[in-house]
Amino acid sequence: MAAEQDPEGLAAARPLLTDLYQATMALGYWRAGRAQDQAEFELFFRQCPFGGAFALAAGLRDCVRFLRAFRLRDADVQFLASALPSDTDPAFFEHLRALDCSGVTVRALPEGSLAFPGVPLLQVSGPLLVVQLLETPLLCLVSYASLIATNAARLRLIAGPDKRLLEMGLRRAQGPDGGLTASTYSYLGGFDASSNVLAGQLRGVPVAGTLAHSFVTSFSGSEVPPDPMLAPAAGQGAQVDLAASVETWLERVCGHLGLGVQEPHRGERAAFVAYALAFPRAFQGLLDTYSVWRSGLPNFLAVALALQELGYQAVGVRLDSGDLLQQAREIRGVFRTAAAQFGVPWLQSVPIAVSNNIDEEELARLAQKLVSVGGQPRMKLTEDPKKQTLPGSKAAFRLLGSDGSLLLDVLQLAEEPPPQAGQELRVWPQGARESRTVRPAHVEPLLRLWVKQGQLCEPLPSLAESRAFAQQSLHRLSPAHRRLEQPALYQVALSEKLQALVDRLSARGAL
Amino acid sequence: MAAEQDPEGLAAARPLLTDLYQATMALGYWRAGRAQDQAEFELFFRQCPFGGAFALAAGLRDCVRFLRAFRLRDADVQFLASALPSDTDPAFFEHLRALDCSGVTVRALPEGSLAFPGVPLLQVSGPLLVVQLLETPLLCLVSYASLIATNAARLRLIAGPDKRLLEMGLRRAQGPDGGLTASTYSYLGGFDASSNVLAGQLRGVPVAGTLAHSFVTSFSGSEVPPDPMLAPAAGQGAQVDLAASVETWLERVCGHLGLGVQEPHRGERAAFVAYALAFPRAFQGLLDTYSVWRSGLPNFLAVALALQELGYQAVGVRLDSGDLLQQAREIRGVFRTAAAQFGVPWLQSVPIAVSNNIDEEELARLAQKLVSVGGQPRMKLTEDPKKQTLPGSKAAFRLLGSDGSLLLDVLQLAEEPPPQAGQELRVWPQGARESRTVRPAHVEPLLRLWVKQGQLCEPLPSLAESRAFAQQSLHRLSPAHRRLEQPALYQVALSEKLQALVDRLSARGAL
């Protein structure tokens, strides 16, 4: 895996990636003499996506990148001036020109943390004017990242820890960066790799890919490779004409499968040979361009066996259409008999990869059987129209049992002392009418201080570290909450003081 | 509206925004001696999105930007080398380093054209290796842009030509560029403006916005504005203490509405005054932070009437929750009585804007009544699992009746002569079993040559020009096809020669 090439956000969002009403409000604050007032906003969600009981927090790294690079250049200020009234006081634009995030402080759940409804993912505090300008870009950076990471985590739970999951959604992404974000956070949430090369280059996501149908159809079979010779894997011995060797093997394979030697498509075979010449150590056959049974499979076997003679082992096959599970089972059967017939044991267990619109349901069906799955996380953000928010600056703690399992999360006022391990605590679960008591064996603070007055307080974990942390976090969640359909809801509760404040403000109609 | 600031694609996609399998296939072609083979691919869709019978073609400008900027820098080639086998021939990487789009030709539907299933949006031809690398980024750039433009066009059809439609989806977009793309192509498809400032700066989209709830809640009412004085609109006469004037007007307004003068929220009023001081010519009241009837509306009226005394006219109010239509009707009633009571006729017709999760159905309900609507186009791409594609390089024509109405689109082989106006033509509608004849009064070629051997052939229209073209195109579509639900499907037909080729290839099992 490559290291991250863009730690300082050259590919990060630009400062004007914000809603105009943030800029008009900034002018309003400035005119009211309130630009430097201290303010805080929190990002949180009201309902877990995809019908689940958990979400993964993600996007913090992009937020920190954005903050550190945040600065309005002359062109930015000029554009804002063109969008604001022409008689706006020029001193406002001078204020914008001098703006940076040196007064901004960020607390957040570590990247890859479990997150529950109402618990802030991010708390941003600092001068009112700058904090207002940051609201839209930070929301944009956190909400989609968390959604994708959560979706990926769900697919990983379905697939189990050992299956290889590849993200291949770039073609259908919401524009270039929609794709970059999706690839990055699919990996964070538990995928193994992405087809998106830019995500590899800029974010260090492992990249993977072999060939598509267009490669296969581009060969007619009449092409003459300029150099069909391939040296043995060990480097010793004479080169072999791979194309000729494949034709010899094809006869044996067709005999074994009961096919006529004219049936497998010549162009497909030429494409496989071309690919094998370029990637003798990483040959994968895409089986379903013409006919899996009459063409793709025999052509793959002929090339794989010709490579095998030279000491190379094919890495697998891929299916991209039809009933993936049924075909995979039948292909496995053919591999078993061919392995015996030709005395090539590894052929029994050659990986079968599948792709093509794989959603949670299809993955559940496939996961029992297959080794590798490619697909695109699906996005759907369920929103609660209720707009009430909890007042004041809050602290959040996770209470754990003696076995390390998660009991509940508590939100309280920032000035309250933290819950103590071993001490009984009365809390008010959100949405419940009654309080309850809980005695945690361990207490973990949820929000960590990452940026203080514009300065990074501790190194951000790498993407791969956050990915590992996400999987650890998911492991500690009880199966009842981890369940993807109709899960038991995980409780988020308010402290007695916070609940009392909410009650007081509600009675006054202020919420 | 600002001019476009990024014509050459500084904000365009990067060259490695592609799937790794495109790069592995490139190596395969290169190893097979086929890098310079001439190749062509077409981008098209199989089914119109959102259950409609039309789509708008969009994204060409981004494609042209991408092509013109396409060049693999050293860092890009080094990254690809790290992702490919370590024994890959170094000459391949030299080939990549020298790669550009000087051999690439692009034909495409003009931006904003009506597009129908099977008709290519884009035909890209050139050397096989480079065309393969371009496939993913161009797909990514065209499909999402067309989807958003189509969605925006549907919402515009529902709203009618005169309502003002604002796109405000940035907070929920797929990352920064997902938002930029959505804002740009919502405008192309028929929206009037976006809240996204970056879309204004980089793409020339008109931007709009006023204030959000957070501005209102940030004021308690105890703030003392450093300068509450406002000069009359005409510039003549003494400055007035706006805050004091608003308090005077509030008493009259509350008397008229039968409210106690203590009921309207002080903080909300302070926020409105602060906003009015900053934007005396563009004051808009966001009414639903506390109570529309007991607070938002009287506070708005007090500020609007105080501004009116100084010669300023408020631009309107906005509602962001609840039953938008019902509230809007009642507010209109209050504006009418207040206009009469206070002798301010323009108050009768002050614009009422609404926002909050407005989909096609809600918009249809609202459009009867309201002037301005903000919302986010919803995306859903329906896909057909059928993967068969039509063979060969194709030309496409639109046949029109004598009144300029659209009859059908015809796909034919590139070498066939074009259909002639006034001459009968036999064609095979896709999905039908029978041929039909058609005698067009006019014939329009659909695909235009934009880039030839890497050179732009004619200037691209501006975004605003494409937007106007899109609306003209939609006007020519018959109401039966334009209908958003259960529309009559518009026919796309094959020429006799193309149909014969398809039949021949199908019989041979090659499709």
UniProtKB/TrEMBL annotation, chains A, B:
Domain of life: Eukaryota
PTM comment text: Transiently phosphorylated on a His residue during the reaction cycle. Phosphorylation strongly increases the affinity for substrates and increases the rate of nicotinate D-ribonucleotide production. Dephosphorylation regenerates the low-affinity form of the enzyme, leading to product release.
Catalytic activity: 5-phospho-alpha-D-ribose 1-diphosphate + nicotinate + ATP + H2O = nicotinate beta-D-ribonucleotide + ADP + phosphate + diphosphate
Span of domain Nicotinate phosphoribosyltransferase C-terminal: 394-501
Keyword Coiled coil: no
InterPro entries, alphabetized: Aldolase_TIM, NAPRTase_C, NAPRTase_N, Nic_PRibTrfase-Fam, Nic_PRibTrfase_pncB, Nicotinate_pribotase-like_C
Annotated metabolic or biological route of this protein: Cofactor biosynthesis; NAD(+) biosynthesis; nicotinate D-ribonucleotide from nicotinate: step 1/1
Domain Nicotinate phosphoribosyltransferase N-terminal positions: 16-143
Enzyme type, top EC level: ligase
EC code(s) of this entry: 6.3.4.21
Keywords of this entry: Glycosyltransferase, Ligase, Phosphoprotein, Pyridine nucleotide biosynthesis, Transferase
Family annotation (CDD domains): NAPRTase_A (cd01570)
Keyword Ligase: yes
GO molecular function: glycosyltransferase activity
SUPFAM superfamilies: Nicotinate/Quinolinate PRTase C-terminal domain-like, Nicotinate/Quinolinate PRTase N-terminal domain-like
Pfam families reported for this sequence: NAPRTase_C (PF17956), NAPRTase_N (PF17767)
Family membership noted in the UniProt record: Belongs to the NAPRTase family.
Function: Catalyzes the first step in the biosynthesis of NAD from nicotinic acid, the ATP-dependent synthesis of beta-nicotinate D-ribonucleotide from nicotinate and 5-phospho-D-ribose 1-phosphate. Helps prevent cellular oxidative stress via its role in NAD biosynthesis.
Protein name: Nicotinate phosphoribosyltransferase
Gene name for this UniProt entry: NAPRT
